[in-house]
Amino acid sequence: MSIRALRTLHAIARHGSFGAAGAAVGLTQSAVSLQVKSLEAEFGAQLFDRSRRLPVLTEAGKIVLEKSAEVLALYDQIGAALSDEQSLAGRLKLGAIQTALARELPDALAILNRQHPRARVHVTAGMSAELSLQVANGELDAAIATEPVRPHPPDLVATPLYQDRFWIVAPAGQGHRTAEDLLQSYPFIRFDRASWAGRMIDKRLREMRLDLHEEMVLDSQRVILTMVQKGLGVAIVPMSEAERGELDLTCVPFGAPQMSRWIVLLERQSHTGGRLGAELVRIIRDVTGGAQI
Q1: CATH code for 3-80?
Q2: Contact 123/93 with Cβ under 8 angstroms?
Q3: Where is the HTH lysR-type domain (predicted)?
């Protein structure tokens, strides 16, 4: 039995499928299946009911999930328990875009709290453009945002965390249609140009010179996806592989090659290198399987 296999078990329970869990922990779906089989052999019990479309925990699986949470919590405390010097202290005023708040950041903050209980992170939500101004003005110590696009405050340093790709999302069952056909056949739901992601999308669309029938302009990716699910149009949004795998929507790559963006930690050039910020970068990269230090 390995700690990594137990973490994979929890990722499956959290994300709902072997594929999405693999994307979250940096493994292929087949590697996830092998880890589950090793746990089932170890405990002599079937942990998932595989007869359904998505795996469902059996009663034995629920017991292993509950008890292993205690094991993982104890394991995560070992490093901090070895020496008080390993435990960071202090406060970090952090901004974050909505997509990070909805997925990657909660897991990272939970790990940070367990490993460094004396550290305090105060979180503010916002769009990348406004968060960058708050970092530049000293209102925030750092922000998790899209990699800066012009115009942006000049005195910023961006540390890569993980990468998203851009997808055309449409109602389910439209995977046989081309990107251009989808964009011109449905009402277009636009990502607000005030956001950096919106600016990136707008620049590429202008290069494509498509005749779009714009119906809505929204600044929340979650709301945009809900509108598409209701059949109200198509949209272009940045998503991780794990998030895309959870959607019951048609997802077609946007751009050739497919457009992507980096999610980064923004700091002022004159205020970088703090141990707490560096530790948060390390944890987020571990959670997402993103850029390596």
Answers
A1: 1.10.10.10
A2: no
A3: 1-58
